[in-house]
C-alpha cells in the first residue's frame, strides 16, 4: 500500500510539472497544500488499485528494464508502475490519460465504455463549504460518443440552435401568413365584371341542364357543343373559387389583404362547401351511365348565389333601378315556366305520349315529333297553368292531378308576386310626379281662394312646368341629408366649387372657407321678366349665374345696358358692408331675367357666419372690396381710414342684445324646469308621507299598548 501511495505522489508531481495543465491549475504550482496532494493521491490510488496488479507489474518491469523513471513524449519524467495508455499501442507516457472522478471519468473505464486516449487534465475550480478543494470534470470533450460533460454542453448548444431555427422558421411562417397578395376589392369594377362572367355559366346550367335531361334529342343532337360549354363553365367555376380566395373583405373598416386570412375566411364560409360540391367531377359517371344522362350535372346549380349577388349589385349601380327590377322579375318567372315545361314533358314521357288528353300528344305524329314543337307546346302549357289565364286539358290520372295542383299553387304565388312587385314599382316611379302634382294643386287652390289674376296664375303654372321639364324639382338638401357631412361637402365641392371660384373676391381665399361657402349656396330659379334686384334695395344676397341670361336695365325696365350670362356674378360688394362705400349696402342697378335663369344665392348672414372662423379671410375680402370700390370711384377714403364705423358698433350691440335675449330665454326655461321638478318632488314626498303615516301610527299604538299592559304587572309586584 505504501508503494502504491508513493507512485500516486510521483504521478501528481508529474502532473504539476506538465505544461499542458489548464490555467485553472496554475495556482497549484505555487502552493504547498498537502490536502490537495492527498486528495489527488487518493483518487489515483483508487484507480491503480482497481486496475490490478498485472498492469502495475508489467509497468514496473518495463521501467526496470529502462533503468528507473522514464520520460514522456515531451521529455518530462513520469511515475514508474504507471499503466500504459495509447490508442495505437503500449508504452504510452502518463500525459496520454487523466483521472477525473474516481473511475467514472477515466478514459477506457468500463463504466463509460470510452476507448479513446485523448490527453485531458483535471480542473480544480471550486472549493467546498469546509474549504476543501473539489474537482470538476474537464471541459475538454472526448472524441468518442461517451456522454461526457463536454458532450452535454454540445447537446445543449445544438438544442439551442434547433430552438432558434424553429423560432426562425415559425417567424418565416408567420411572415408568409401575413404576406399580402393582390386582392380584388369587392366594391370595385373588376369584381363586378367577374360577377358578370360567373353569372353566364350559372345561367347556362340553370336553363340547359334540365332541358337536356328532359328532351333527349336536345342532348344527343348537340352533344359536342354541350361538352365544350360544360367544361368551359367548369373552368370558370374553378377560377371563381380562386377569385374568392383573392377577394378582400373589410375588417375594422380596412380591406384585409393577407392571403392566409382570406383563405381562412373563405373556408369558414358556407359558400365554400357549396362551391366545392358544385365542382365535384360527376361527369365521370358518363363512362358508366352513358352520355344521355346530363342530370348528373345538377350539382352545378349550387353556384346560384353568384347570380343573385350580380343582380343585387347591378340594381344598386344602375340609373334605372325600377326597370331593372321589372326585368329581373320577368326573368325569374320565365325560368320557373321553363322548368315547369320540362317537368311536364318528362311526366308525359313517363306516362306515355298520347295515352290521354292531358299528356303531350303522340310523338309519332309528324306535327308533334319535332324538337321545337315539343318544347314550345310544353312551354305554352306551362304558361297557361302557372298564370291561370287559360284553359288546359283536364288531368286523368292521380299523378296528373297532383302535378296540376302544385302548378296552381305556384301560379297563385307567381301572380301575387307579379301584382305586388309591379304595383310597388309603378307607385315608386310615379311618387315624384304625384308629390309634384300635389304641390301644384295646393298652389292652384290657394290662388283661386285669394282671387289671384289669371295672368299671375299662368306664370306660376309655367314656372312649375319648367321645373318639372328640366328636372329641377328635387330638393338638394332633402336628398343629401342622409349623407355624412364629409360626403355632402365633397358633392357640393364637385358641383359648385368651380362656379364659386369665378367670383373675384373669392379667388384667393382659403380652401376651408370656400368649402363652407359652397355648402351655403342656395339654388334659385327665375321666370322671364322677374326682377332679381332693383336699384335702392338693401343688398342681403349675392348671386352667381349658373344658367340663363340676365339684363341690367334702366328704370323703365326696357332699356338694356349690359347682358349677364353663365358664370357672371353680382352683389358681392353689398353683402360685405364695407365702411366708406358711397352706395352703402344698397343695390345700384336693376337686374332682370330675360328667360328662365338658374342662379346660386349666397346670403350675407351665411357669409358672415362662415367668416367668423376665418378672420384673416374677412380682412382680405374687405381689402379686395375696397380696391374694387376705389376703381369705380365709390369709396370715401376719409371714412374708410377713420376709426370704427358706428354702424359696426350698432351691429355688435344688436348681436349682443340678441345673445342676451337668448341667454334669458334659456335661463327662463331652466328655471321653469327646476320649478316643475321641485313641484314633482314635493308631490312624491306627500305620497310617501301618506303611505307611511298609517304604518307609523299602527306601530306607535302597538308600542303604547304594550306599555299599558306592563304597568299593572309592575304595581302588583310592588
Automatic annotation (TrEMBL):
Task: Give GO cellular component annotations, separated by semicolons.
Answer: intracellular cyclic nucleotide activated cation channel complex; plasma membrane
| Biological function | Pore-forming subunit of the rod cyclic nucleotide-gated channel. Mediates rod photoresponses at dim light converting transient changes in intracellular cGMP levels into electrical signals. In the dark, cGMP levels are high and keep the channel open enabling a steady inward current carried by Na(+) and Ca(2+) ions that leads to membrane depolarization and neurotransmitter release from synaptic terminals.
**Pfam families attached to this UniProt entry:** CLZ, cNMP_binding, Ion_trans
Give the matching PROSITE patterns: CNMP_BINDING_1, CNMP_BINDING_2, CNMP_BINDING_3
> What parts of the sequence cross the membrane?
329-347, 401-423
Q: Which organism is it from?
A: Nyctereutes procyonoides
The protein's GO terms of the molecular function aspect are: calcium channel activity; cAMP binding; cGMP binding; intracellularly cAMP-activated cation channel activity; intracellularly cGMP-activated cation channel activity; protein-containing complex binding; sodium channel activity
* Membership in a protein family: Belongs to the cyclic nucleotide-gated cation channel (TC 1.A.1.5) family. CNGA1 subfamily.
Q: Which UniProt keywords apply?
A: Calcium, Calcium channel, Calcium transport, cAMP, cAMP-binding, cGMP, cGMP-binding, Coiled coil, Ion channel, Ion transport, Ligand-gated ion channel, Membrane, Nucleotide-binding, Sensory transduction, Sodium, Sodium channel, Sodium transport, Transmembrane, Transmembrane helix, Transport, Vision
- Put simply, this protein is called Cyclic nucleotide-gated channel alpha-1
Amino acid at each position: 500500500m505504501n508503494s502504491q501511495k508513493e507512485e500516486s505522489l510521483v504521478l501528481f508531481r508529474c502532473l504539476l510539472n506538465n505544461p499542458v495543465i489548464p490555467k485553472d491549475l496554475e495556482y497549484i504550482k505555487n502552493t504547498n497544500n498537502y490536502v490537495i496532494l492527498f486528495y489527488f493521491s487518493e483518487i489515483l490510488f483508487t484507480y491503480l488499485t482497481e486496475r490490478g496488479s498485472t498492469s502495475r507489474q508489467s509497468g514496473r518491469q518495463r521501467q526496470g528494464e529502462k533503468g528507473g523513471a522514464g520520460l514522456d513524449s515531451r521529455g518530462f519524467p513520469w511515475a514508474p508502475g504507471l499503466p500504459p495508455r495509447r490508442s495505437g499501442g503500449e508504452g504510452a507516457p502518463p500525459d496520454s490519460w487523466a483521472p477525473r472522478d474516481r473511475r467514472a471519468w477515466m478514459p477506457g473505464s468500463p463504466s463509460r465504455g470510452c476507448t479513446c486516449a485523448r490527453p485531458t487534465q483535471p480542473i480544480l475550480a471550486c472549493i467546498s463549504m469546509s474549504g476543501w478543494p473539489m474537482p470538476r470534470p474537464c471541459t475538454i470533450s472526448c472524441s468518442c460518443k461517451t456522454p461526457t460533460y463536454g458532450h452535454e454542453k454540445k447537446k445543449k448548444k445544438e438544442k439551442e440552435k434547433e430552438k432558434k431555427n424553429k423560432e426562425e422558421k415559425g417567424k418565416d411562417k408567420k411572415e408568409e401568413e401575413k404576406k399580402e397578395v393582390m386582392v380584388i376589392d369587392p366594391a370595385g369594377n373588376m369584381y363586378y365584371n367577374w360577377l358578370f362572367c360567373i353569372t353566364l355559366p350559372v345561367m347556362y346550367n340553370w336553363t340547359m341542364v334540365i332541358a337536356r335531361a328532359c328532351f333527349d334529342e336536345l342532348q344527343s343532337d348537340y352533344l359536342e357543343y354541350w361538352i365544350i360549354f360544360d367544361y368551359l363553365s367548369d373552368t370558370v367555376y374553378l377560377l371563381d373559387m380562386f377569385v374568392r380566395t383573392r377577394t378582400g373583405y373589410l375588417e375594422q373598416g380596412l380591406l384585409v389583404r393577407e392571403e392566409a386570412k382570406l383563405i381562412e375566411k373563405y373556408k369558414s364560409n358556407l359558400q365554400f362547401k357549396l362551391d366545392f360540391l358544385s365542382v365535384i367531377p360527376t361527369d365521370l359517371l358518363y363512362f358508366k351511365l352513358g352520355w344521355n344522362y346530363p342530370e348528373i350535372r345538377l350539382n352545378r346549380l349550387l353556384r346560384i348565389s353568384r347570380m343573385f349577388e350580380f343582380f343585387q349589385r347591378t340594381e344598386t349601380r344602375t340609373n334605372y333601378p325600377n326597370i331593372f327590377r321589372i326585368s329581373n322579375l320577368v326573368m325569374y318567372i320565365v325560368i320557373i315556366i321553363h322548368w315547369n315545361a320540362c317537368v311536364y314533358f318528362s311526366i308525359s314521357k313517363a306516362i306515355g305520349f298520347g295515352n290521354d288528353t292531358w299528356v303531350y300528344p303522340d310523338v309519332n305524329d309528324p306535327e308533334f315529333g319535332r324538337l321545337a314543337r315539343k318544347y314550345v307546346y310544353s312551354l305554352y302549357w306551362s304558361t297557361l297553368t302557372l298564370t291561370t289565364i287559360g284553359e288546359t286539358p283536364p288531368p286523368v290520372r292521380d299523378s296528373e292531378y297532383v302535378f296540376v295542383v302544385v302548378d296552381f299553387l305556384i301560379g297563385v304565388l307567381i301572380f301575387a308576386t307579379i301584382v305586388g312587385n309591379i304595383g310597388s314599382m309603378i307607385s315608386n316611379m310615379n311618387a315624384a310626379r304625384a308629390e309634384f302634382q300635389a304641390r301644384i294643386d295646393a298652389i292652384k287652390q290657394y290662388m283661386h281662394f285669394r282671387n289671384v289674376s289669371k295672368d299671375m296664375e299662368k306664370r306660376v303654372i309655367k314656372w312649375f312646368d319648367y321645373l318639372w321639364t328640366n328636372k329641377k324639382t328635387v330638393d338638394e338638401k332633402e336628398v343629401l341629408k342622409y349623407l355624412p357631412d364629409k360626403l355632402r361637402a365633397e358633392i357640393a365641392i364637385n358641383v359648385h366649387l368651380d362656379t364659386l371660384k369665378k367670383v373675384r373676391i373669392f379667388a384667393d381665399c382659403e380652401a376651408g372657407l370656400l368649402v363652407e361657402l359652397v355648402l351655403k349656396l342656395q339654388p334659385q330659379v327665375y321666370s322671364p321678366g322677374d326682377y332679381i334686384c332693383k336699384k335702392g334695395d338693401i343688398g342681403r344676397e349675392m348671386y352667381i349665374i349658373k344658367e340663363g341670361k340676365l339684363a341690367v336695365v334702366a328704370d323703365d325696365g326696357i332699356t338694356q345696358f349690359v347682358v349677364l350670362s353663365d358664370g357672371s356674378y353680382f352683389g358681392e360688394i353689398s353683402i360685405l358692408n364695407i365702411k366708406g362705400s358711397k352706395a352703402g349696402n344698397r343695390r345700384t342697378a336693376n337686374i332682370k331675367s330675360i328667360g328662365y335663369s338658374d342662379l346660386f344665392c349666397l346670403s350675407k348672414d351665411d357669409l358672415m357666419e362662415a367668416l367668423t372662423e376665418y378672420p384673416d379671410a374677412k380682412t382680405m375680402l374687405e381689402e379686395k372690396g375696397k380696391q374694387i370700390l376705389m376703381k369705380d370711384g365709390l369709396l370715401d377714403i376719409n371714412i374708410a381710414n377713420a376709426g370704427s364705423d358706428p354702424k359696426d358698433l350698432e351691429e355688435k350691440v344688436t348681436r349682443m342684445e340678441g345673445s342676451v335675449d337668448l341667454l334669458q330665454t334659456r335661463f327662463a326655461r331652466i328655471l321653469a324646469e327646476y320649478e316643475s321638478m321641485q313641484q314633482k318632488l314635493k308631490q312624491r314626498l306627500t305620497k310617501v308621507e301618506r303611505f307611511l303615516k298609517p304604518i307609523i301610527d299602527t306601530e306607535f299604538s302597538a308600542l303604547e299598548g304594550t306599555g299599558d299592559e306592563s304597568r299593572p304587572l309592575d304595581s302588583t309586584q310592588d
